[in-house]
Amino acid sequence: MNGETKLKAAVLGASGYTGAETVRLLSGHPRVDAVAATGNSLAGKRLSEIFPHLAGPTDLPVVKAENIDWSDIDVAFGCLPHGTSQDLIETLPHHVRVVDLSADYRLRDAALYASTYGRPHLNPARTADVKYGLSEWRGAELEGEPLVACPGCYPTASLLALLPIISLIDSDSIIIDAKSGVSGAGRGLKEGNLFSEAAEGAHAYGVGQHRHAPEIEQELNLQAGRSDIGVTFTPHLIPMTRGELVTCHVRGDVDQIQTALEAKYANAPFVTVLPLGSPPPDTRHVRGTNNCRIAVYPDRVKGRVIVIAVIDNLVKGSSGQAIQNLNLMMGWDETLGLSGLQALFP
Amino acid sequence: MNGETKLKAAVLGASGYTGAETVRLLSGHPRVDAVAATGNSLAGKRLSEIFPHLAGPTDLPVVKAENIDWSDIDVAFGCLPHGTSQDLIETLPHHVRVVDLSADYRLRDAALYASTYGRPHLNPARTADVKYGLSEWRGAELEGEPLVACPGCYPTASLLALLPIISLIDSDSIIIDAKSGVSGAGRGLKEGNLFSEAAEGAHAYGVGQHRHAPEIEQELNLQAGRSDIGVTFTPHLIPMTRGELVTCHVRGDVDQIQTALEAKYANAPFVTVLPLGSPPPDTRHVRGTNNCRIAVYPDRVKGRVIVIAVIDNLVKGSSGQAIQNLNLMMGWDETLGLSGLQALFP
Amino acid sequence: MNGETKLKAAVLGASGYTGAETVRLLSGHPRVDAVAATGNSLAGKRLSEIFPHLAGPTDLPVVKAENIDWSDIDVAFGCLPHGTSQDLIETLPHHVRVVDLSADYRLRDAALYASTYGRPHLNPARTADVKYGLSEWRGAELEGEPLVACPGCYPTASLLALLPIISLIDSDSIIIDAKSGVSGAGRGLKEGNLFSEAAEGAHAYGVGQHRHAPEIEQELNLQAGRSDIGVTFTPHLIPMTRGELVTCHVRGDVDQIQTALEAKYANAPFVTVLPLGSPPPDTRHVRGTNNCRIAVYPDRVKGRVIVIAVIDNLVKGSSGQAIQNLNLMMGWDETLGLSGLQALFP
Amino acid sequence: MNGETKLKAAVLGASGYTGAETVRLLSGHPRVDAVAATGNSLAGKRLSEIFPHLAGPTDLPVVKAENIDWSDIDVAFGCLPHGTSQDLIETLPHHVRVVDLSADYRLRDAALYASTYGRPHLNPARTADVKYGLSEWRGAELEGEPLVACPGCYPTASLLALLPIISLIDSDSIIIDAKSGVSGAGRGLKEGNLFSEAAEGAHAYGVGQHRHAPEIEQELNLQAGRSDIGVTFTPHLIPMTRGELVTCHVRGDVDQIQTALEAKYANAPFVTVLPLGSPPPDTRHVRGTNNCRIAVYPDRVKGRVIVIAVIDNLVKGSSGQAIQNLNLMMGWDETLGLSGLQALFP
pTM of the prediction? Predict the structure, then answer.
């Protein structure tokens, strides 16, 4: 890469987990430098005071977003909560490409956004048009895009498993039972996320009403050319930090499903479809990587199939996929900065 | 209880977790004394050498089963692996009542037992007759029984949730997605149960072929007066020690389901049906107790309902229910020795 | 206990962990009923809404302290933060006995209190006089006391190990290296106590300046008849919820130390001195109980000895010892309400 | 590195954690390829069957050591248990450089080896001569060496903290209180390492007799030009997978100690001495990296100082330092293959 100019990136909301993870991953990217990190309440500190693991070459001062000189920035990673994210993104100058990790530009239908997230969208026309950055599905389409919306962590795992088979299964009986580590809840201070209350136990949450369900349905319907597919989506919080596992209960033929998944991801660098009969994939096997592993199992009840996918919610489920999307937006090899990541085990 | 003679109990297989838990719980029982503990490889040690938390009044020497003087024993708790359990139980003198925690007498159909557990049953006629001790469903029927088979941990939670509503739901689309702590795997030495390999991750196991599925189906069919109900049962191992959570995805009417569950368990001392709209039950809230908590949620997809149940796999899922069953066999108050247990939180 | 009137207890600060644990433990006490629970921000809720494991007979409405009718209360358990605790305790009518779990009445020297806790004491004369409730050391002295100060969790474990041997060891080279579970930090919302930041790691804190050191020194000096003993006290936060382990590095003779400890606690119901050569005590073996286990080891360096003590920080380290102290204040058997607690293992 | 020939490495004992970690780390090394992996009981499997996270380019067949064609191997990483390690290493042809991670060549005194490890050394003359590869202390001395012994995990952290200050402190009162994650115990199957028995608790082990103490003393004495320094070394097992923290209690002057540590490691790429007054280092901040962080604290007792060091036991404490040592043996930049590692947080 000698002689090439690197892109200059700003990470918006660097004091949260996805912000910190984006900074961490960018430090290994050959064509992008993280040069600015924003935060509100923590502005004035250095990133390494908030996240000591970012000491050294990855360290940056945290500044308020309004103090960034945007003329010097090529790309912004939006790691802010929904709402706050669009409030800032809509003010950015046009030359700044944006990879948004929030929910703000994922739903094409602004009315659905408003009912799901409890506030009207600032720019309904734009959200209707923004590309939904499930990297393996949009690929080259993302090249040149000014703004890409990164999928939620649950939709990433769920859609990677279900999109290739939506035409092969009974789309009216899809059940997604999901399990997530606590880092998925972010760095917000809630009793339920304290070690003493999250360790040694498990519970469902958002049962029947989680915000990721409409996002999953939007993409399944789009792929199926329908508008009425509804999914049951039941997430659970389990006592681990990173990792997400989705167990999809569907009806169809196990061999057709396996074949379709293998065909779709034959050349995908980050998605592995395990051979039939493999031991079930474990979130440990993808921890710290941008990988997704998918496996298919016949149920003992004829005609039912279980499709399981695992990801690291902070990498493929957010910051890693965001970088993969930037690579695609720039027309680069999609693995830049991500191919060297190895799962930490044990 | 002054003046009364206490029952003398032997715990068979006291060097495993359910054996140790049975000893622990019996120490608080007003009408039963644990007087003998068997073990093979550890015979000759004291229980407190294997399990230091059992030092003190609960301590016992571990002896080989063949060295027990059965004339002195009133009741035996079978805490052995399946197979080994029937091998011993079939040799016991008739005056010894048996509460078996293994799988050996749960399936009425000896052929199904053989295909599920990989060996023929020693006593097909007996297993066809033995009462299946899901305490809240057999209750007074257990009085006077010489042998009761305690349900598996997953069937306990699943059946408590599903039996009361089997006639109200589409019995051909039942999906049970279960999550268990690692103690459910017992004390056997396997790499996957090492801390370094079980912490910080999650995976499914036994997908489509877990041995608890036939047991669940047997009881659902019996209750429904059918023989062809099949269930999808997908268990997951998650990084906690105790606790089990089953998420049942069913089709039916949420209010009918809530009403049926409330009616069934209105007077059950150990089963609580949470009011509609409650936060989801957490395994922490029942840890160390014989309690089961059940909650019902409408799905966002019309006509689908999520029923969640949590138990402590080592108490209500095994040793606690075993004691509850002994109480019922003796015609005692079913809460004896169990009512004082309080969930340890945090 | 038939026919006897039970004491009526108020738990002040029931929305924290020591408050909840006090309510939980009192529910098994034969001569005390928890009848009131106070909380400020959570007043108006029921205790079971904050702590679902307290649903049922242990449930209580949370009220503001100013709304308690004290004429109806016999004893108050102070489970408030230091400072807040004395502010309330100093206003209570004289007939209310107080067991204070905070740090407010532990230090006899009000100047030391002020420098350690950053505020002047409201009642210096009183704190100079209040009995320091390390139960095994004050015992019958507590009978009839109107107010007893319960030791901190670290001082409890450290002093149980060191007080019996202070005259046998080099009192100028005592080093206490302590490890605590996260529940010791309480329910306060800090990033460092989030599951994602406390799991899978360990760190020291308060190095060279923890507030429990002056408390430990006060009692060691008192016992030794000196005033200049200083201790090195270095606590660590480790990824477990309950449990505290102190490793005391001292100089002395291992047999003398073992003998002194055994002699002191020969009849103590809650303190066990393990025989020389025992496997090291584990916090799991006392989890959920009021027990302390102590073990002594010769070092490979001649003349050095390691004394290890383990407790459950929320029981013997706070709420359990508080109840033990109330028993002593009332002249009752000190084990009332505590003898049935069994360690939860695994 | 284009055009250069890479070294070919064999990993001996690839079915344990340090073996797997060596394979993982080598996959990012620009001048070394892992081309062979040995194992006994698992020979015939692929590495990815044992460690699914090693699927892909890092995968290798596991073969018996006797089936390796050594003419094709440049370097061997010994990841075997002590004893087994020397049995194999002593048979290797001379052209094979060896980096041994076991304890077999760490102690110069074969008699001390025999008494510590319970068997005579095969090659006493060799062990007296082998370089002890604490990388930051041997550095260029390692260039050209045919065999280097990598320090144990505890000695690595302890010596990095103590060697630079041994002349500044009272060398007769050194106390090292250490805490380790469970992966330090390896992949061996013992009840105490099961998740259910290692989670939610802590205990000391090897008190007064751990095998790493002689190793620490050997190096301290060598550096101090003495032979009689003895250390108290008390390790603890805590419920995390990776990470090691040593708390060194010493007597000396805090400023002198800080200055000496800063001076020693001013140019060390992997060792960071935190400024005085920093928050205590956390094992999370070095997890997955070859880094060591050291911090110094004045005690409240005058003249006492606490020096804390944290490492990842599987990286700087074993496989990472092994690769650093190979780099030094080859005269390469010591950071090759290690500089890109980033701590995984949260």
Answer: 0.97
